[in-house]
Amino acid sequence: MVKAVVFDRLGNERASHECPMPLRRPEPLWIEHDMEQLCEMVKLCLGKVAAQLGDQRQEIAGIGITSTGDGTWIIDQAGNPVRCGILWCDGRAGKVVERLHAQGIAQRAFDICGTSVASRPAPLAARERADVTRASPRYLSRQRLVVL
Between the N and C ends of the chain, which has fewer C-beta atoms within 10 Å? Predict the structure, then answer.
């Protein structure tokens, strides 16, 4: 789901719009977003809330962009996506997570930082990235920035 919401300075909601964002599942346990489609949905939602505001859109003081969960998005030199974004709930790192739990590393990490090791924790994103780029060298040659 992609959602845009406008609040006034008192915290009152002034406009909102949301669009469904389909998940890609090209392999078992893989969960991805088409990055170009995601950008289009963001632009659509922002346009819809701007239209709802009409002339009042001139009063907007700022725009914040956020997401839920972690993910891995690989961007090229021109700012374009190199591949689909890997979502936080993607399970391709499941065997690594199982090993971390079996070795007690997951519990030690939780004791230190209070965050549990889930199916796709942020620290495993680098490994995912390496696995993805090894499998498809064309991604590695085009990447400029990896957003985790």
Answer: N
The domain segmentation of the chain, as residue ranges, is 1-22+35-66, 67-148
CB-CB contact of 26 with 86 (8 Å): no
Tens digits of per-residue pLDDT, 81-103? 888 888 888 888 788 888 888 99
Residue 91 near residue 65, CB atoms below 8 Å: no
Tokens of 116: 């549990």
Query: 3-class SS at 127?
Result: helix
Q: Which of 129, 127, 126, 125 is nearest to 139 (CA)?
A: 129
Q: Which range, of 41-50, 64-73, 128-137, averages the lowest pLDDT?
A: 128-137
* Residues 64, 77: Cα–Cα separation, whole Å: 24
- Residue 55 token pair: 């002339």
Give the model's pLDDT for residue 93: 78
Rg of the chain over Cα atoms, rounded to whole angstroms, equals 19
